[in-house]
Each structure stands twice: as structure tokens, then as C-alpha cells.
């Protein structure tokens, strides 16, 4: 019960990594608010978790409506009087349009960067005064390994995540005196619906070829690192950009090819 008596808010929380974070934080004793556009679906999940003895509630948030970030924060504070943990989980791109520098339309590029950055900037900006007034808090940004390892496609998504990594360090630096910590978690290839529905088996196999822990991560494994940053276990940790990617990008760039050559001997 490392989060007992704490209030947490998770955006984009009805599936994948966001849902795993809701479940993990709730199991550790937090009252967790699910920021969601699909209120009915979120409420179904909340009801199931509440029947299991947890405290989960729902608040409206639509990433395409920027005003809803501030109203989401205000609603949680109105109900609970505080927010101790904010997990900025929302992120999106269109792999069919988010290509390389030559093929990506500027409008696609800027709209993806805008919505992904807004989801962190506006929500953090709205919550920081409340955290400061209550003696501090923890902001956790879900970024991506793509924010530190340049790809041959998804230029918009990768740029937005790289910016979120830097924004994480800025928030950490500027808000530390208010006892507000800010860290980022960078998932690698994670077994979510988005990955399974948008990536081909050939691409998955190629990606995992260069991942020392040769499998996809699980949303629960990402949530475990989020829990660390949410709890007092990380009370002296801020501004950290932590990849949870099975080691992708860590060894030599020809790691996968070298392993194959070794196995053929």
C-alpha cells in the first residue's frame, strides 16, 4: 500500500499502458481518477475495480479539446482537494501518414507534435499550482524509446517524444523547490492493442531482433516503473528519463546481426 491516502490521475486510461497504470496504482492504495473521453467504458472499468475493493473514479478528458485538460484537473481537485500523482499517458500518431522527412506532410507533422506536447504541457501546467499548495507531488510522463532512438519513419511521433523528454527535465528543474518531481518512462515495443493492430509481424520480428530481452514488454511492466516514480521510493529522484525497453538501443547498433552470426557458428 505504497500510495495509501494519495490521489492519482492517469490520462488515456481505458486500455494498454494507461489502464495498467490505473490498476497498479489502485492496488497500491491510491484513489485513482481515469481521464477518459469514453466515459461509459471508463466507468465500466472503474466499477470492476471498485468491486474488487479499490477506489477508482472517472473524469472527462478529450485530447482533441485542449480546454478539457484544465477542467479535468479542476474537477479532480474539486472532488478530492488534491492531486498527488499525475501520469501523462496520452500519445498518438498515424503510422500511415507519419513517415520520414521527405514523405510527411507538414500539417500531419505539426498536428501530431502539437497534440502530444499539449497533453503533457497543459495538464502539468494546470496541476502544478495545486501540487505546490499541497506540499508537492509526482508528475510522470509516458514518453517512448523513439524519443531517444531516431527511426526511419514516424518523424512526428519521435520528435514529440524527444520534446517531452526535455520538457520533463525542465519541469523537474523548475518545480523542485515546490517538492514536485517529474520523471519520464520510455516504453519500448509493448504488447498493447495499438502495437498489435498497427505493426506488422515482420516489423515486430525485426524490432525484437535488436532487443536483448527478446520479447515485447507488457503494460504491467511499464506500470511497475510508473509506480516507483509515483511512490516515496523515488522521493530523491527527479528529471530522469528511464527507458523500459528490454535493452533496445543499448548495445552496438548491429547487435541483432551479430547474435544471428554467432548462432550460425
Q: Which whole number gives the mean pLDDT?
A: 94
SSE string, helix = H, strand = E?
A: EHEHEHEHEHEHHHEH
Secondary structure tally, helices: 9
- Tell me the β content: 5-15%
Rounded Rg: 19 Å
Secondary-structure blueprint of this entry?
Layout: E1 7-11, H1 16-27, E2 31-36, H2 39-51, E3 55-60, H3 67-80, E4 85-88, H4 106-133, E5 137-142, H5 155-175, E6 180-187, H6 193-198, H7 201-209, H8 219-230, E7 241-244, H9 255-264
Helix pairs in contact: 1-8, 3-4, 4-5
Describe the 3D structure:
By secondary structure, this protein is of the alpha/beta class. Helix content is 47%, strand content 15%. The chain has nine helices and seven strands. The chain has a seven-stranded parallel β-sheet with strand order 3-2-1-4-5-6-7, sandwiched between helices. Helix 5 links the parallel strand 5 (137-142) and strand 6. The chain is globular, with a radius of gyration of 19 Å. The N and C termini lie far apart (50 Å). The relative contact order is 0.14. The model has no long low-confidence stretch (mean pLDDT 94). GO terms for molecular function: oxidoreductase activity. One of its GO terms (biological process) is bile acid metabolic process. Keywords: Lipid metabolism, Oxidoreductase, Steroid metabolism. Belongs to the short-chain dehydrogenases/reductases (SDR) family. It comes from Candidatus Cellulosilyticum pullistercoris.
